[in-house]
Amino acid sequence: MNTTSSSTRALVLGGGGSTGNAWLIGVITGLFAAGLDVTTADLTIGTSAGSTAAAQIAAASPTELFAVTVAAVPQRQRPAPTRPVVNHMERIGKIIAAAADAADVRRRLGASALDLDAASDGSWHTQWRTTVAARLPSQEWPQRKVLITAIDAYTGESVVFDRHSGVDLADAVAASCSSGLPYRIGDGRYLDGGFRSNAENADLAAGYERVLVLSPFGGRSLWPQEWGTHLATQVDELRAGGSKVETIFPDSKSEHMFGTNAMDLSLRPPAARAGYDQGSGLAERLSEFWR
């Protein structure tokens, strides 16, 4: 049975680190410059770096965001670390290997993050909020429907913030981007939305007629395929429910800028330009789908 709503469009912005955010802005701007404005989606879902992009495109034009993104990156001295130095990817890999399923991973990740937080000096939360808030053109939730994903570090349960959640936009984005230490909102502690199911969380677009997924990580996941949490599985489920779905992944010429290089600030301008080229090249084909 087709369960989709009539003429509704969802834009899914996946996680992918600093370069992933730049690529997302580039793709959206390339589409926009070619005449296709996807920022008017009825629903925007943002995860991790995609949550930052979701908040950014809701408050500023793609052209303005792109100009800032491709500007030269100043060389800044790295501040002294304020939290334990941990190889987070290695830590996460070990947790996944020991877990029974996705829910178990989330619980274990939350417990591990809380242990790290207990060993820190506590200053990271304020510093992180300041950093995230500075990236947002507006501190106000948009009127258009935007969902920001995270997980509860105490329980491992899924959390989806929106303008009705009673949480500031900057706090929601900071939580969604917290892959190491848990981010504090009131008495709660929250972790990266990419731990909810995958870096995209496209399942939240169920019921929408057209779903456009931008995935800096190309739909890849660290979680075992048999857990059924991969983007490809979610896309199949959306289509089975009647949604039309299109995905955009970085092309082979630019995929080296993601993954292990995702936090390299010097790669933000080329990642944005690569996204722009992809977006402008795909606009004509996607226009009929989106409109």
UniProtKB/TrEMBL annotation:
Q: Which GO terms describe its molecular function?
A: hydrolase activity
Q: Does the keyword Hydrolase apply?
A: yes
Intervals of motif DGA/G: 192-194
Active site feature: 48, 192
For biological process, the GO terms are: lipid catabolic process
Sorted alphabetically, the keyword list is: Hydrolase, Lipid degradation, Lipid metabolism
The cross-references to PROSITE patterns, in alphabetical order and at most eight, read: PNPLA (PS51635)
GXSXG (motif): residue ranges: 46-50
- A Pfam family per the record: Patatin
Write down the InterPro entries for this protein, in alphabetical order.
Acyl_Trfase/lysoPLipase, PNPLA_dom
Q: Where is the signal peptide?
A: none
Q: PNPLA domain spans which residues?
A: 12-206
Highest rank taxon of the organism: Bacteria
- UniProt name for this protein: Patatin-like phospholipase family protein
